[in-house]
Amino acid sequence: MFKIISNTEIGPSVHRLVILAPRVARARKPGQFVIVRKKESSERIPLTIADADPQAGTITLIVQAVGVSTKAIVATPPGDFLQDVAGPLGKPTHLERWGKVACIGGGVGTAVLYPLVKALYEKGNTIYTVIGGRGAKQVILADELREFSKELHITTEDGTLGRKGLVTIVLEDMLSGKLPCPDVVFAVGPVPMMEAVADMTRSRGIPTIVSLNAIMIDGTGMCGCCRVTVGGEVKFTCVDGPEFDGHKVDFKELRNRLSMYRQQEQKALEEYCRVEEQIRHMKQS
């Protein structure tokens, strides 16, 4: 059992959880993740470790409540417990001193971006961070990322914060010379965004690393559910990733696999919401 120390909402349906997990906190490296279960019968949810404090024995997870399992996790109050926090899993981020690094995050992908930005900065790189969301409320961790960034650019689709548009408009300015051109790019977020970033940098030969969110169950490579095709070879996101060369990822296959269980997920969510509504009525009556 893993105790939740704090649970803070930092955006619409997005929570920052600090969890007591001493062994994970001591072993964790940037880019790695854990698999979380709310209770024994719950779905296994892979979540990137956003931060860790080895002395306090805690890890920080940022969770977007989009389905039944994530809603149950973010509804867990401080002082309560999660059944499982297994990890750290996955390959750590390959870190070196590249020079100018563009770190691009979309939506809740910004949570995955944060530990990368921090680690790349500590390695001596100059960080140009770009984050975006549908609106101002969906932009998260701006202050935390600004601390490690030479420049922080914010975009929103509705124009309520920063520049109006997608994160790719800032990348285009970097590639055209209006802003400093990066030596390497890290991109984390929705699949269409990562694919667009990779397409933009491919012809210019700028190395581009993406962090994939494939369907995952055991986290050890045994089930094969998280398989992706990279450079024509089958890889398992949980053990070979989650970070891969964005120029080699088969994004079409990834999109298709991510949508396989959409109907089942929607039905489960509708049932969850129906039961929650019944419970609220019973408490009020």
Quaternary organisation:
single chain
Sheet with most strands: strand arrangement: 6-1-2-5-4-3-7
CATH superfamily membership of the largest domain? Nucleotide-binding domain of ferredoxin-NADP reductase (FNR) module
Q: Report low-confidence residues grouped into runs of 5 or more.
A: none
- Kindly estimate the percentage of residues that lie in beta strands according to DSSP: 25-35%
For the record, give the distance between the C-alpha atoms at the N and C termini, rounded to a whole number: 34 Å
Look up the CATH topology of the largest domain: Rossmann fold
Strand segment tally = 16
Largest sheet: 7 strands, antiparallel
Q: What is the typical, i.e. mean, pLDDT?
A: 87
How large is the radius of gyration?
A: 19 Å
Shape: globular
Output the CATH class name of the largest domain: Alpha Beta
Question: Layout of helices and strands, plus pairs?
Answer:
Elements: E1 2-11, E2 14-20, H1 22-27, E3 33-37, E4 45-53, E5 58-64, H2 68-74, E6 81-82, E7 84-89, E8 100-106, H3 109-122, E9 126-133, H4 142-146, E10 151-156, E11 163-164, H5 168-176, E12 184-188, H6 191-202, E13 208-211, E14 227-230, E15 233-236, H7 237-240, E16 243-245, H8 251-258, H9 262-284
Parallel strand pairs: 8-9, 8-12, 9-10, 10-11, 12-13
Antiparallel strand pairs: 1-2, 1-6, 2-5, 3-4, 3-7, 4-5, 13-16, 14-15
Helix pairs in contact: 5-6
